[in-house]
Amino acid sequence: MNGIQVDINHLKKGEVSLGTSIMAVTFRDGVILGADSRTTTGAYIANRVTDKLTRVHEKVWCCRSGSAADTQAVADIVQHYLELYTAQFGEPSTKTAASIFKTLCYENKDNLTAGIIVAGYDEKNKGEVYSIPLGGSVHKQKYAIAGSGSTFIYGYCDKNYKENMSKDETVSFMKNSLSQAIKWDGSSGGVIRMVVLTKDGAERLIFYPEDYENL
Amino acid sequence: MTSIGTGYDLSNSVFSPDGRNFQVEYAVKAAENGATSVGMKFKDGIVLAVEKLVTSKLLVPGKNKKIQTIDRHVGCAYSGLMPDGRHLVNRGREEASSFKKTYATPIPLPALADRLGQYVQAHTLYNSVRPFGITAIVGGVDDDGAHLYMLEPSGTYWGYKGAATGKGRQSAKAELEKVISNKPELDAREAVKEAARIIYLAHEDNKEKDFELEMSWCSISETNGLHKAVPKDLLDEAIAFAKAENGDDSDSDDSSDESENEKDNEKKDAEGDVQLE
Amino acid sequence: MAGLSFDNYQRNQFLAERSKTVPQATSTGTTIVGVKYDGGVLIAADTRSTQGPIVANKNCAKLHRISPKIWCAGAGTAADTEEVTKLIGSNLELHSMYASREPRVVSALQMLKQHLFKYQGHIGAYLIVAGADPTGTHLFSIHAHGSTDVGFYQSLGSGSLAAMAVLEANWRPDLKKEEAMQLASDAIEAGIWNDLGSGSNVDLCIMETGKDAEYLRNYRTPNVREAKQRSYKFPRGTTAVLSERVLDICQVEEETVDIELEA
């Protein structure tokens, strides 16, 4: 480990990991986050109904991948910072939330295994997606995919993503994408969870295997 | 000296029996004796104007800027001890940059005013420091629109529609009140002209001294939310307007003005003339 | 001497150098479960504690009290589950006195996970936290690295796979208290019978809002030792005396020596 290269291939022994399929997509009215629900310890599924979509502010959420402990700790700290920010300055932007995530992930890169997608909605900037992969860099994107399962759906997403989709189109695009990710990635599975962030607030969706397996 | 023997004015962190902090009050005097500064809010921004007294014929006209930029979207003008003001601006720049580093967004003006207020207030608490000998006008534009604050040596700050400090503040304030109540929907260019006129008016009481007008603005429509010096052509236009409005036919910019156009010094500043022994 | 003692560090280094086997901590190779049911939550544990292949304790207690109505089942390193549970229990009590409020399960959870995360997994505590507080009944699990999970039923420890099989097959949201007790005990028994690290008895603790927690130590004892068919106590005289001889083991000789002292 020399500060440039990060040891990504090994979690601490026995650590719980989110070998995951996660994504976030901007659309006409805001942004939607999506994730599978599998948590593993080695070959054992420690939790088959995990919630990897975590709230850090009313309309700023994140998708977590990597170590469960690390990403939960980071999300808890960001949630705390945003609470303080709100008390002092009012509603934070998604960019501000992403910046706090980045600072934590970048400055502790040697001790963290955390791949996070930050997505949020605010009145000024509408839906936004920021991807923060392992080294702690930030990438603003129209949509982002991450986690072990994402490798299988780069092509699918690239071909099928369209700007300014409707909510239903977006949900269906994400359901198809995550369905394929789960199908081909052994570390992903369970249900598909989604959170829709629009001017009306946050809405949760859930899709069971029978809903997404044979699309 | 009124309070000789009491000793309550010697130390910064000590109250007098009637609950005053003399050091802070002396600092206010320092600010009140300084050259006039004016700040004014308009529809989508703010304008800052200062009276720059020409202390030497050798100084290069148009250089030696007094108005400073704290962040791209925030300007600051102050009256009183210039080095104190420059120090405060430095602190403001540190606060603005640290905010932008952690939150990836420009510091909102209320937050900046608050942090500067805390910093100035801290200088009224300790024996090892003295209060700031300035009153600063901080203005700019953020996500919530235009903001204008005036910050005093005690650390107090208030949000204003129009603010004035320095020697000519009384007449400037009276004029600001008139302008703001008569023309509430001023646009940027009109505001610049009005601010220029007010500085020229406030200088009336101090006519024997030569001065230069310096102005900056920060508006959504004219400067894209950035704090910038008012461009040369508009500045010249504003000066011409100010002179015409004040019925001043002489040119105080280029030549010292001997012709005493002694009108009626109606709003003579009483406090501004206090002598420090 | 104040502060930490590192006396054993050199010894351990030495031992590790000299032999392949390092002293192992006592681990509760365990089965623990938690079950939510209609009106409450309960947790259960087996009572076997092991040191490698040896059963160190046949009836140890793995259910710990964090506060009167928040209990915790521990797997992993026995000493760590005990200590971390005591520490957070103590801090939670101070917190509840400061806030003049009943302690909450989420508070215990947050304190535990932050403590464990700080120690990066070196505190080997795997916990199922459950309890009743003013906001309702709750059930969580925590892993040693500080990650937490929520669920209607949880299992942890070496016997968790066996226990989870039972829970997955039989859990329902409308379970009544007695049914939940039965289910949790069955899950622990699955561990007791099928996992080498688990054994002996079932401990249970039931928590419902507005009621005191019910701690049922040895709720089930499926491993009571059979009374010995025969006794190994022999009456006096069982061994026949064939001959008897008394020996002087040592002989003592005494001798007095006179020393003449010169004047």
TrEMBL record, chain A:
Its main location: nucleus. It holds the Pfam family Proteasome. The active site is at T20 (nucleophile). GO terms for cellular component: cytoplasm; nucleus; proteasome core complex, beta-subunit complex. Keywords: Cytoplasm, Hydrolase, Nucleus, Protease, Proteasome, Threonine protease, Zymogen. CDD domains: proteasome_beta_type_6. Transmembrane segments: none annotated. GO terms for biological process: proteasomal ubiquitin-independent protein catabolic process; proteasome-mediated ubiquitin-dependent protein catabolic process. It is an enzyme of class 3 (hydrolase). It catalyses: Cleavage of peptide bonds with very broad specificity. GO terms for molecular function: threonine-type endopeptidase activity. Coiled coil: none annotated. It is found in: Nucleus. The 26S proteasome consists of a 20S proteasome core and two 19S regulatory subunits. The 20S proteasome core is composed of 28 subunits that are arranged in four stacked rings, resulting in a barrel-shaped structure. The two end rings are each formed by seven alpha subunits, and the two central rings are each formed by seven beta subunits. The catalytic chamber with the active sites is on the inside of the barrel. This is proteasome endopeptidase complex. The lineage of its organism: Eukaryota, Fungi, Dikarya, Ascomycota, Saccharomycotina.
UniProtKB/TrEMBL annotation, chain B:
Residues 8-30 form the Proteasome alpha-type subunits domain. Transmembrane segments: none annotated. Residues 241-277 are annotated as: Disordered. It comes from Lachancea thermotolerans (strain ATCC 56472 / CBS 6340 / NRRL Y-8284). Keywords: Proteasome. The proteasome degrades poly-ubiquitinated proteins in the cytoplasm and in the nucleus. It is essential for the regulated turnover of proteins and for the removal of misfolded proteins. The proteasome is a multicatalytic proteinase complex that is characterized by its ability to cleave peptides with Arg, Phe, Tyr, Leu, and Glu adjacent to the leaving group at neutral or slightly basic pH. It has an ATP-dependent proteolytic activity. InterPro entries: Ntn_hydrolases_N, Proteasome_alpha, Proteasome_alpha-type, Proteasome_asu_N, Proteasome_sua/b. PROSITE patterns: PROTEASOME_ALPHA_1 (PS00388), PROTEASOME_ALPHA_2 (PS51475). CDD domains: proteasome_alpha_type_3 (cd03751). SMART domains: Proteasome_A_N. One of its GO terms (cellular component) is proteasome core complex, alpha-subunit complex. This is KLTH0D00902p. Residues 262-271 have a biased composition (Basic and acidic residues). One of its GO terms (biological process) is proteasomal ubiquitin-independent protein catabolic process. Belongs to the peptidase T1A family. Residues 247-261 have a biased composition (Acidic residues).
TrEMBL record, chain C:
This is proteasome endopeptidase complex. Residues 222-257 form the Proteasome beta subunit C-terminal domain. It holds the Pfam family Proteasome. One of its GO terms (molecular function) is threonine-type endopeptidase activity. Keywords: Cytoplasm, Hydrolase, Nucleus, Protease, Proteasome, Threonine protease. Its EC number is 3.4.25.1. GO terms for cellular component: cytoplasm; nucleus; proteasome core complex, beta-subunit complex. InterPro entries: Ntn_hydrolases_N, Pept_T1A_subB, Proteasome_bsu_C, Proteasome_bsu_CS, Proteasome_sua/b, Proteasome_suB-type. It is an enzyme of class 3 (hydrolase). It catalyses: Cleavage of peptide bonds with very broad specificity. It is found in: Nucleus. The 26S proteasome consists of a 20S proteasome core and two 19S regulatory subunits. The 20S proteasome core is composed of 28 subunits that are arranged in four stacked rings, resulting in a barrel-shaped structure. The two end rings are each formed by seven alpha subunits, and the two central rings are each formed by seven beta subunits. The catalytic chamber with the active sites is on the inside of the barrel. GO terms for biological process: proteasomal ubiquitin-independent protein catabolic process; proteasome-mediated ubiquitin-dependent protein catabolic process. The active site is at T30 (nucleophile). It comes from the Eukaryota.
